[in-house]
Each structure stands twice: as structure tokens, then as C-alpha cells.
Amino acid sequence: MTGETLLSLDRATKRFGGITALDGLSFNVTQGEIVGVIGPNGAGKTTLFNVITGAYTLTSGTISYRGQSIGGLRPHRIAGMGIARTFQNIRLFASMTVWEHLLVAQPRGNGWSHLLPAAMGDKAARRRAEEVLTFFGLEDLRNRDAATLPYGLQRRVEMARALTAGPRLLLLDEPVAGMNADEAEELKSLLVALRDQMGLTILLIEHDMSFVMTLCEYLFVLDFGSKIGEGTPTVVRRDPKVLSAYLGDDE
Ligand SMILES: Nc1ncnc2c1ncn2[C@@H]1O[C@H](COP(=O)(O)OP(=O)(O)OP(=O)(O)O)[C@@H](O)[C@H]1O
Fold first, then answer.
1. Is 109 exposed, middle or buried (CB count within 10 Å of its CB: 0-12, 13-18, 19+)?
2. What number is the ipTM of this complex?
3. Ligand 1 close to Cβ of residue 42 (< 6 A)
4. Can you give the residue range of the structural domain that contains 156?
5. Shared-domain flag, residues 65 and 3
6. Taking the chain, what is the end-to-end CA distance rounded to the nearest angstrom?
7. Atom 2, ligand 1: residue with shortest CA distance
8. What integer pLDDT is reported at residue 248 of this predicted model?
9. In the record, which residues are listed under signal peptide (predicted)?
10. Is the CB of 44 under 6 A from ligand 1?
11. What is the pLDDT averaged over residues 19-28?
12. Considering 111, 140, 165, which residue would you say is the last residue of a domain?
């Protein structure tokens, strides 16, 4: 089911006092695509994820997901509708195994409050966690303390945890940060598999240009909270506006 719009922003604006982090941003994400969001530091990329997931409320404009407005909904409601995310900095719990991480992450009911006991006894949750564990090749590490694993594996656990809720849209905030070249290549294959086999749509923020350019089918380029370019990597790479705003600074 590709070709349909999954996520849509219309003139999305987010201000923090005098700072305009998102400035009338409009774009559509098509179902089944792997889409990159790039732009210089402070361009508004993380703010974008925060407004999509309900961590922040828009100052003006709208966000819709599967045709339904999600502006103003609480984060757990949005997560429950099928939007999952990972964060720029790893957020794993101390002294919890990989398996426990996969069980606690699944939102249910009206909030996150009773996650651990409910999920532990929930057959469907365990089945889903088992599937994700296998998909991510983490079976042998299930009883390991997640926070003590090598960096690349910790990132993998985080992503697996996001997946246990069964999302349609996965938001990844700088998934490659801190990874070595081999880990980045493995991640790339994993993301393609997630899209191909689980039908996920993936929106990712990333500073690693070679990763973005070889993985993503479509890119949005932000600068000062506005979209300054979009298109396939080939198109974006040649866009003079993008080059001067971002790639030019970086390479
Ligand atoms: N909670 C907040 N309060 C005040 N200002 C904020 C807040 N969050 C973000 N900003 C500001 O909004 C702007 C966009 O920040 P944001 O973190 O979204 O950029 P970014 O593109 O993700 O940057 P980076 O690539 O460095 O992570 C910046 O000027 C930032 O200082």
C-alpha cells in the first residue's frame, strides 16, 4: 500500500518565546517510504519530531496522521495510533534486560503508568516482543543488561523497543550517531527490512550524509524551521539552496 499520504503537516509553526523553531512547515510523508529530514544544527528537526509525537503542541498549523488531526493529542494517544520514536541520546533503563525493555515499551490503556506488570503477563505483548527480538537478531542477548551492551547494540535495542508497540510510522532521531561504519551498514539493511517486511514508513533525522543519501528515497531539508528543499537524494544533492545552507557547511 504505497502512494498514500500517511503523515501530513500543514503550515506547522512552533514558537518558544521569541524563537521560531518551526516556521510554517508543510509536507507529506508517503506510506511505505524511507524519508530523511536533514538540515543544519538548530534547523528544527528534533522539534518536528516533538510536535509529531505530542511532546510539544503546535503554536499554529495542523498535523494529520492517516487523515486524522493529531494536533493537541497526548503523547500516549499518538503512540497508540501507531507512531513510535527513538531519541537522539540513548534512553535505556539501568539494570533491565533486553527482554524486559521490549515488554515495558508497549503502550496500552489510557497511559503508560501500569506498563511493567500488565505487559509482563500479557500474552500478545510477549508474542510481539518475541517477534521483534528475532527480527532484530537479539535472541542471544535477551537476558543481558541492555545498558551494558556495546553502543550499536544499545541502539538496536532502542529501535526494537519502539517496534514492540506495532507502529506504522517510525521516527528515528539520528540513529547512526556514534555507530561505526559496519554498524551503520547493518542498520541500513535492518531499516530496509523493516519497511519491506513489516510495511513500516520511516522518517529519520540524520547528519550522516552518506547514510541518508544511500538509504532514503526522499528527503526534506530544513533551515531555520522552514523547508528549503525536498526531493530524491539526487535532486537534493544538486539543489544550490541546500548546498549553501547545509552541505556546503559540512563538506
Ligand atoms: N524546549 C525548547 N525551548 C526553547 N527553545 C527550544 C526548545 N527546543 C528547541 N528550541 C530551539 O528551537 C530551535 C530548533 O531546535 P531543534 O533542536 O529542533 O533543532 P535541530 O534541527 O534538531 O538541531 P540539532 O541538529 O542540533 O539537533 C533551536 O533554536 C533551539 O534552541
1. exposed
2. 0.96
3. yes
4. 94-165
5. yes
6. 37
7. 16
8. 53
9. none
10. yes
11. 97
12. 165
